[in-house]
Specification:
- With 127 residues, this protein is mostly helical.
- Among the domains are: 45 residues; 39 residues, no CATH class.
- It has 5 helices and no strands.
- The mean pLDDT is 77.
Length: 127
């Protein structure tokens, strides 16, 4: 006779693999929940105003539109969907670079910033 396994909702917590999964998933969810707060502080700390913050937060929800890519890929094929995705990326990058506040951001001090151009150093100019 084999002993009967407990069948309560908490019985799954007796499994070490599930506890590791639960801890990792919880840490991931907490990190994802704190990302908008960190982005808001980064935008405001770099001199951005409410408009810049709103633009950045609005850009965070744009990838939700990619949920339609699966059914479109089933109908059209993967090559056209990948090409449209690349064009979408190009348009998104161009839109971000069109915002004047983005072009004037400088990298934070204290890190490896020697190779990064700043707003005062045009790209391609000799240092």
């Amino acid at each position: 006779m084999t002993p009967q396994q407990p069948t309560g909702r908490r019985s799954v917590l007796r499994e070490p693999a599930f506890r590791r999964f639960l801890a990792g998933h919880t840490a991931s969810l907490l990190g994802s929940a704190m990302a908008p707060v960190a982005v808001a502080f980064a935008v405001l700390d770099s001199g951005g105003d409410g408009t810049a913050l709103g633009t950045v937060m609005a850009a965070r929800i744009l990838p939700i539109g990619l949920a339609a890519a699966g059914p479109v890929a089933d109908r059209l094929g993967t090559t056209p969907v990948l090409a449209l995705g690349a064009l979408w990326q190009l348009a998104a990058c161009a839109a971000v670079l069109a915002v004047p506040a983005v072009r004037t951001l400088t990298p934070p001090s204290g890190g490896r910033t020697a190779a990064l151009p700043t707003a005062k150093t045009p790209v391609g100019s000799p240092d």
